[in-house]
Amino acid sequence: AAAAAASYQHCCPCSRCRTAGTVSGPSQRMTCLLFPMCVFFLKRSMQKLQQQERDEFLRALVTSQTCAIIQLLLEICLPPSPSSKEADKATTELGNIFAIRESVCGFVHQLFIENPLVIRLLHAQGYDPALLPVLVGGVPSMHMCLDVIPELLEHPQAENQTFAIQLAGALAAAYPLPKTLEIARSVVGRFHFMARADTPTRAAFCKACLPSLIQLCTAFPLLSGSAVEVLLEFRKTERSHAAAEDVWGSSPTSEPDILDKAFEQLTVQVLLPSRHT
After folding, report:
1. Of 161, 230, 215, which is closest to residue 184 (Cα–Cα)?
2. Distance, CA of 77 to CA of 34 (rounded, Å)
């Protein structure tokens, strides 16, 4: 690691480091230090793996290590969450985040191509959904993630199912392909299933996943009819439960308000434009 860090200008994919030899913020300095260490570590691991191609345990270990490195780099890509005292500092850091994301996305793309198993494991682990637009826009091989969505939808953990839907929405916007359409139909089926869930589970699902339903319908307007049925089903369930449970109040993040917003977005972004085409 020390040897890699000493030659970071040759390893770091950040153009600023290669051209100027300097970095402009703490996050970018950390990124430029981590990159060569990660490259050095993974190259040594891959060399060892090539020497023992039939060692399945070693292959699984290298894949797990690769995912751990990607998770670490993805955390650096998250924008700062400024407090009132750190707003100016956060604004400065935000100026560096685009260069950092570009470097990380290029690195992740290379790892996806070299070892597709990383894609499956990384998305089974999950990561912050706020990074989905970053990765879909910056990693050319993200379309390979379409293959993991059906498996995640069948996962027993609700968090994995939610992440699968959010991933499907992000990918549909970038890759409106026939294969994506089939996956989108499966996702809509999951919405019908979740409409019958208990109130807390259903409310959390609405908040996390209804924006993805709008993304799917925007990419595939022919799904808008099914989406309307889903929203009406959620509304019917919400009203029947609300008669027995007074848990929502008037919060803007309550289930009725979330459903109203989803109806509005579906109408404005999908239904009305489709009437004029």
Report:
1. 215
2. 13
